[in-house]
Amino acid sequence: MTLSTTILSARWMRTPGRIPVISSFWRLFTSVRFAVILIAMLTSGIFIGVIVSQVPQEIAISPPDFANWVETQARPRYGIFTDLLLMLGFFDVFHTVWFRALLGLLFVAIVICTLNRFPAIYQTTIKAKRTVSESFLRSSKNRAAFTLHTGVEDLVRVLKSKRYGVTVIPQGENVHIYADKNAWAKYATFVSHLGLLVFLAGGLATNALGYQRFLVIADGASQPIYPVYHEDQMQVFSDGFTVEYYPDGRPKDYYSDLIIYKGGAEASRGRIRVNSPLDYDGFRFHQNSFGPTVRLNIENASGQTLFSETMILGQVFGAVPFDIIQIPTTDYTAIVALVEGNTTSNVVGGTFIRGGQEQRVAVLGFKGGDTSQGQPDFSARLAAGETSETAGLKISFEGTHFFTGVVARKDPGAALIWIASTLLIPAVWATFWFARRRIWVQVVGQQVMMAGMADHFVNLQAEIDEIVQAVGHPPAPEPTPERQRPSLSPEAAD
Asked: Could you say which of 3.30.160.110, 3.40.50.300, 3.30.70.260, 2.60.40.10 is the CATH number of the domain covering 128-182+435-493?
């Protein structure tokens, strides 16, 4: 890009604010107050999403499941406020139109603010004034005046030793010097703005296209990624879960062998651990938890099979994993609990079986579905391979195994978030570590006037005093009240 093209671009970016039709819009989106309001509203939305129960995404995409979740999970907790929270979208805040609109408005505001700031930064870097008026030299907050007993070249040498870029401008018998340090750092602002834009783009991509589901899969069984029909539906099959223990019963290592099926055919397979996921088709499969399963068979008195399944004991009472079933064609509800052959240790929320222990299950049957009554109508305690006949039922316990808890996550914005971090961190560091400084010097004979400007967190006066001392002069006296007046820019001083 040529200098003339850059100048035209800088002028063009000033144009929107000068067009009456859009000047109000431009001023709104360049307003700091408007940006603060947007950020405050987004923060409020995030806070709401933290304190109000959020519906799992796999339930949210199914209207019947969502309606059932509201009635069974939300209404008992929020009572008369449930319908209001539902109307406002507070049960799925991060996917509401208003939350996405706020993200979009903030994105636009950052773009416009960046375009609006570029001309000013361009003016003070590429087109910076090399000479200033005497009034600026006399009124600047950071300044010095002294007699130069050596040559101008010594002053130039000192400035260069402090890593200033120096320009010497002769004007007749006088000499002007312009010294600029870290001018490039001002453009780090645009890199940080770009990082913010990429970060917001990543958030929008995750919000609009991301998906996550927690799968509980028994060994030899599968679970779908999406709970309803979906054109990209996949099945995740557990081809075996393995856990290794220390002598004291703590898990040493555990992992799952998964097979991914798509369109009825095997698409991928791999072994996952907590910190070693499997990637396929935009999804990442993480090992999250594990726990026990029991194989139970129930028949009636005539030998008809009523129940024959591998039960996932995903609930825990104290140290005992359990689940509840309704026995088909009967009036019995049964609690099935693994009362022996498990350990009280928790691994990422799941109780697990310790190898080498004899497993025993307890089956407690209650009539009418009320499992909270004190005494069960029947009970059985079985070791693996045992059968018990009670209440006209034949209950067989065939043994235990494991289920694996897998998080399937699709996050299209993840790469953008990493790119944003790569841009933001060095840009913010450069902004504060390499602060911009500018110094103007006017030499008339042997009389020198020096003034400078820098970012507000830089003690430029101390640096000017060091420069003066380096060319053979004592430090400047303590600032007088006059010297504490706010500095004018070189342009304003003219």
From this structure: 3.30.160.110
